[in-house]
Design goal:
The chain is mainly alpha-helical. The protein is about 85% helix and about 0% strand. The protein is flat and about 50 Å long.
């Protein structure tokens, strides 16, 4: 029994790490476009911010896949998504000055509530 609890704790920690990585990857993508001297595809592909995002997403895939070793995807992914939505909205506001007003707070609350209900 103790071993099962240990595995779940590790798996949920991996979900959290993957969600944080996903948020970081999304912010790196945004940064790649903000720093671009022009909107061309080549500029995007050669951007160090874009390359960093690809690396972070690659790590994210590995970490989340490992979490799925012992968690059902129907539970793990909604939690992953809720954390990711929350982080991107909050960090986008703090670091990029993106809007995070009452409508965004209510919407995020509804998303998180829906995910909690769905994953039970």
């Amino acid at each position: 029994m103790n071993n099962i609890n240990s595995i779940n704790w590790i798996s949920w920690s991996l979900v959290l790490i993957a969600a944080i990585n996903s948020g970081i990857g999304n912010l790196l993508l945004k940064k790649s476009r903000l720093e671009a001297p022009d909107p061309s595809l080549l500029t995007l592909l050669l951007s160090p911010w874009f390359m960093a995002a690809i690396i972070v997403y690659g790590i994210n895939l590995i970490v989340f896949a490992k979490a799925l070793d012992s968690l059902p995807v129907s539970t793990a992914y909604p939690v992953f998504a809720a954390i990711g939505f929350s982080l991107v909205a909050l960090i986008g506001n703090l670091l990029l000055g993106e809007r995070f007003g009452l409508n965004q707070m209510i919407g995020l609350g509804l998303i998180v509530t829906g995910i909690i209900v769905m994953s039970r």
